Amino acid sequence: MNSRDPVVHKLSHPDFPSATEYFLPHPKLPTDVMDELHPWMQTVVTSDSRQIRSLLVDRWASIQSPELIALRDQILGYEAVCIVVRGKQVWLDLSSGVEVDTVGSSAYVAPPVDRVDMEKRLAQHGIQAGSLFHEFMCNFAGLAEDFYTEGNFIDLSDNWDTLTEEWREDIENFDDWKGSLFIYIARNADVLLLHSNGSVGWFKYAEGRITRTFESFSEFIEFYVNYRGRPPQPLDSYGPD
């Protein structure tokens, strides 16, 4: 096999189809695959690493908040490797170059979202324009640490679950977090929750409780950038402080 040939991964997760890596640039992508890609991803597929970085710079040029500028600049320092196609989901694999093939060593960037649709979805959940989470979702929705299993922020196509009554019997401090939005699903089934007051907590699935971990989404993003700068490991409630 040529080192640039597509690589198909048979995934153990029962809900996920196989995933295929197409290394970049890949101008001869199968027509049926190319036709299903977001137009931005279609451009990525035929671009080299310098051109892809330029596409990302243009895409994220409107970011204003210092916290997200730090995240943007960190990811812009990564190297484009391939696109990953898993059913209807597609990501651009940007490698940090540190401990390659270790979970957390890459940032998997989803296609751009339709901003109008995203703003409507955010408004449905009481997320106001101008908030940091609003800006994050308009720029980094679907950002993932892996494609084999969970480990991703919510995207426009996801269900956007909230902590409803069905969880009451499973969580000891349910009332404190009722109605919170699930914003990140970890590979160990932990869930990062955004409270209506702006705080962020981990639902420790195995323990049946929620810990208020960050006073704000801003505090979480500062942590997240720092986390991405450490030796790679999965992001969950038991990860680095």
Radius of gyration computed on alpha carbons: 18 Å
Mean pLDDT: 94
Counting helices, strands and paired strands, the structural category is alpha+beta
Task: Kindly state the percentage of residues in helix.
Answer: 25-40%
Query: What fraction of the residues are assigned to beta strands by DSSP?
Result: 15-25%
Tally of helical runs: 8
Count of beta strands: 10
How far apart are the first and last residues' alpha carbons, in Å?
42 Å
Strand order of the largest sheet: 1-2-3-4-5
Low-confidence stretches: none
User: What is the oligomeric state here?
Assistant: single chain
Describe the global form.
Answer: globular
SSE sequence, one letter per element: EEHHHHEEEHHEHEEEEH
Largest sheet: 5 strands, antiparallel
Description:
This protein is α+β, with helices and mostly antiparallel strands and 241 residues long. Helices cover 29% and strands 20% of the residues. The protein has eight helices and ten strands. It has helices at residues 31-36, 39-45, 49-59, 66-76, 115-124, 132-140, 174-177, 217-228, and strands spanning 7-9, 19-23, 79-86, 89-95, 106-109, 152-153, 181-185, 191-194, 200-204, 209-214. A hairpin with a 2-residue loop joins strand 3 (79-86) and strand 4. The protein is globular and about 55 Å long.
